Amino acid sequence: MPVHFGYISGKRVQVLRDSGCTSVVVKENLISPSQLTGENRSCVLIDRTIRNFPEAVIDIDTPFYTGKVTALVMQNPVFDLIIGNIHGARDKLDPDPEWNPKIASSENFHMSDCFSDCMEETDHILQSVQTRNQKKKEAQGLKSLKVSPTLNLDVSVQDIKTAQSHDETLVICRKNAESEKKLLSGTNNISWFYYENGLLFRKFQSPKINDNKLFNQLVVPKQYRQTVMKLAHDCILSGHLGTKKTTDRVLSSFYWPGIQSDISMYCKSCDVCQRTLPKGRVQRVPLVPMPLIDTPFERVAVDLVGPIAPITDRGNRYILTLVDYSTRYPEAVALKSIETERVAEALVDMFTRVGIPKEILSDMGTQFTSSLMKEIGRLLSIKQLNTTPYHPACNGLVEKFNGTLKQMLRRMSAERPKDWDRYLPALLFAYREAPQESLGFSPFELLYGRTVRGPISVLREIWTNEEHEPDVKTTYQYVLDLKERLASTCEMAQKELKKSSARYKKYYDKKSKRRIFVPNDKVLILLPTDKNKLLMQWKGPYNVVERKGVADYRIDMDGKVKTFHANLLKKYTDRNQMLLSEAKSDRVTLACAIIEPENRDPSELSLNQEELLNILPLKASETYKDVDVSVKLSPEQKNDIDSVLLEFQDILTDLPGRTSVAQHEIHLTTDDPITNRPYQVPFALRDSVRNEIKQMLKMDIIEPSESPYASSIVVAKKLDGSLRICVDFRKLNTITVFDAEPMPDPDEIFSKISKSQYFTKIDLCKGYWQIAMNPEHKDLTSFVTPDGLFRFKVMPFGLKNAPATFNRMMRVILKGLAYTDSFLDDILLHTETWVDHVTELREVFQRLREANLNAKPSKCVVAYKRLEYLGHTVGDGTITPNDKKLEAIRNAPRPETKKQIRSFLGLIGFYRKFVPNFAAVAVPLTDLTRKGVPNKFEWKLEHESAFQKLKSMLIHSPVLRLPDLSKTFIVRSDASDYGIGSVLLQEHDGNKFPVAYASKKLSVHERGYSVIEKECLAIVWALEKFQLYLYGRAFVIETDHQPLTYLSKAKVSNGRLMRWALFLQSYHFRCVSIKGSDNFGADFLSRHV
């Protein structure tokens, strides 16, 4: 190589004349900072990566060039100085034969050279001379350290006094100082406010801090809090410590309301802290499972390994690897270089052995993203998939194989390292023969359907002298056996792969956290440093453009949009935006343990919170006399009911019982305890919460606990202003095994009561609390309060399988009763005669007494002709919406957010069977709930029209008849160009009454059906919709399309109609043609979808 000696500013260096370079490169430690120009220039390295390097103006003296040049500064180039093809440079084979270095430089070189030689001989001789560069640096002196901007400390005592007296956030502090009230927290911390020399102070004392030391804290007004936080966190004597240490530092001298949240947000928004946060502190997102590929070589993963040292005798220094996603079958080819042409040729050579795949997954290497590779993909119809930058886990299959292959090569070629390429075929055979942990089979078995003959098989044959007689099979039988063997093997491998993927995801996700970014969020990206691509640092902030897939995001990097995985991103908190939002907010404190419903009357806030808490009574406050008995009963009937109620007065109480019929059990998927961080209960509510806990202890509902499990409690405010203590069991529910007990169907209950004349509804008192917890599972229900840990002795509300346990108990208790049904704790008795009703009522009460269950008298309704049940009013053979619900719908305000839209649609959708054409009318409103629609949407005329029309149609909806299973059902259906509709009817007294409405909007594909196909689709869809009433009984289909009369008899040539005809054969019906004017219900539904 053309390497000579030369000089850079008098320093002797090694010089390389590189004819393949177009610039000058110098080593970083050979220049001084004063020689840097302050500009950067892009450079394409030998591995084709593009990097930015700083520029410096240097004076060089070499056989190839002498003078000042602008050079790129690199940390560790191959030689000290590399001279490329710059203007005036001599050819690499023609250095200047008459070149002589400058005398001063030469003398300086000899002196330093001798000094270096002396230093090599002994390390006891000290430096006795000083170089010119060292003398220059000494003359410059020490540079000043970078510190935060100077704080404005020109504040007088009077300024603090004035600010304290006018600060609205200190109102409560000033009131407490005037009243001299001491505040005691749940952890025995004592604090009080006072004035001293006109300044507002706070005294604080805690047994857990500095051995009960008393702190005197100055209360800081809002305008000076930024100064305190900046001094405590940003300055050079603060060290950018974390939130806790910064908070402790400030609290030693200062205080203000919300100090901890303010300091937390300040530290969180610190630019220096965010950029220097260790990578491990940013939690990874949950693992996204790769799709299961069931066809061999449908998708393959490729990668390049190298450069590998040493280079083999054949000149190979790289390996191109390929792994099949279905069978894990690997291929590997040794390469001399990795130009795109050579890589493409090697890939095509692999395809000739295994077939052309449909998809290729690779990283963003230029060999795989070049135009040549794209053209090959187009010609071979291969879809190219690329991983996101710096996220090799996306292509983990081939990356894992690369590591295994390199380890095998390192071990096998230890004695002959330059022949590692000759070991490749044998090592590939070893890998293909070994079973894969994720599949349970070897790649050979999955690809060939048999175990190949390897060295272990040969050894067994030699030692046992076994001879296998070949099976004589026909070609046909051999193909069938091979196909069956491959199918069963692949099926078992797929099952094993699902299990291993789920197992790996479970362990991976234990330390993961779901992080979602939205467009315009600012993020920092973990990227290589400019000097070393193996060292990573946070760069940015950049703006998020869009979310791509589950965990990938497109980021705008100074005009260029690139895709990155979420694990490389960290949300950036802008302090300016934080201060701006804080300035717009009047919030001072946050009650995180109170859930308030919307639209609450503000006047209710003045009520005494302790009086509003729903504390259960210790003594019964209700008796059988509080039962609501119909006033329309005759005196004889009234006497019958009174005698029954008096007989069973012991179970008619507002105190819950304790049944022996059922116990609630909780079975978990893991034994790892669930512990929730306790929510802070506001001081104003703590006494009320304690009273509730005491009452529950006296009622034997809960007991103290020492369980490792702990769920949090929240205080929920109901619409009437009362409070309810709830336990947050969400984490426990996520690891609870689901109980598949079927729940009752309200429509099935309503179908039984069309002929009933008398109705009674019984509501159990605190139904869940009447079921005991299994003693072995009580610890799982433990919850944390300000006074310690408690657990439930009875089944609490909020558990995942509580409804299933309760429904199973009711099914056992009411088994065999013909006129009684239940939906959880709402029991409905329905009979046609008075005698049956009294008998049934006595039997139900008797069974509740035997089960030790109590009913709440004020919620029991007895012997009514019509009553409310499950949100409906039933009786006289009809069913109508609940009057209170209709009133709520009539007075419903116009929705303003997506949440309010969903709430309104959920309320009115509960009664959709009463509204003809509900789906079509609600389309403008349902469109507002779609993804992408802003939360604060624009309310247009079409939305107002749909909103008012839905309310009007439900308020004035026709009354539906309850289905009478003894009468024949009639189905009417019709179809239009855009929709299909159906009505279920029954005939009463010569007139046909609707039982239910249904409609459906046609898809784009279904709109292309012919007229007869749409009519048939309407019939098929109607039968599926009303299958509960129609299957297994004779019914009538009325339609206004004449050819459909022969649908059950005619032989059609249309394949779709033939399938529908076969579907209709499972129903027993007769098809009747009617006039279009008579088919008003279904015709209206279909025409208006």
Care to describe what's here?
With 1089 residues, the chain is an alpha+beta fold. The chain has six domains: 3-121 and 134-139, Cathepsin D, subunit A, domain 1; 157-281, Endonuclease III, domain 1, CATH 1.10.340; 299-438, Ribonuclease H-like superfamily/Ribonuclease H (Nucleotidyltransferase, domain 5, 2-Layer Sandwich), CATH 3.30.420.10; 624-876, HIV Type 1 Reverse Transcriptase, Chain A, domain 1 (Roll), CATH 3.10.10.10; 881-955, Alpha-Beta Plaits (2-Layer Sandwich), CATH 3.30.70.270; 960-1087, Nucleotidyltransferase, domain 5, CATH 3.30.420. The chain is built from 33 helices and 44 strands. Helix 6 crosses helix 7, helix 19 packs parallel to helix 24 (834-850) and helix 30 (1011-1025) runs parallel beside helix 32 (1055-1064). Residues 292-451 form the Integrase catalytic domain.
Rg result: 41 Å
Number of helix segments?
33
Number of domains: 6
In terms of per-residue confidence, which ranges show pLDDT below 50 for 5 or more consecutive residues? 103-127, 583-615, 1080-1089
Helix content: 25-40%
The CATH topology assignment of the largest domain is HIV Type 1 Reverse Transcriptase, Chain A, domain 1
Give the terminus-to-terminus CA distance: 82 Å
> Strand share of the residues?
15-25%
Overall pLDDT level: 77
CATH superfamily of the largest domain: HIV Type 1 Reverse Transcriptase, subunit A, domain 1
Q: What is the count of β-strands?
A: 44
Decide which structural class fits the backbone. alpha+beta
Under CATH at level 1, the class of the largest domain stands as: Alpha Beta
Give a quick account of the main beta sheet: strands, pairing sense, barrel closure. Answer: 6 strands, mixed, barrel
